[in-house]
Amino acid sequence: MIRRRVVISGRVQGVFFRDGCKREAQRLGVRGWVLNRDDGRVEAVFEGEPDAVEEMIAWARNGPAQAYVTKLEVVDEQPAAEAGFRVR
Q: Which residue in 5, 11, 36, 86 is the catalytic one?
């Protein structure tokens, strides 16, 4: 079990990034959350099996078709036993 916090920059709000992120996380069995930040970026926490979390990070590098990701910051964190995946 691993946990990664990601902050995504670019055209990532108003393009269904959070909804797409939730669908992908549920498909992969990843727990955590995603939210729009006041600064225009999207922040998310992905927690689960290493391969699934890495797939989520790879998905976030591009996001949905309407998104344009310019930067992705990834920070390792200690797992916190997240329950499900939610949009905050």
A: 36
Residues 34-40 have a mean pLDDT of 98
Would residue 18 show up in a list of annotated catalytic residues for this protein?
yes
Residue 5 has which token pair? 């916090």
Among 4, 18, 31, 41, the active-site one is 18
What pTM value is reported for the model?
0.95
CB 86 within 8 A of CB 29: no
Q: Measured on CA atoms in the order 52, 45, 87, 85, is the torsion positive or negative?
A: positive
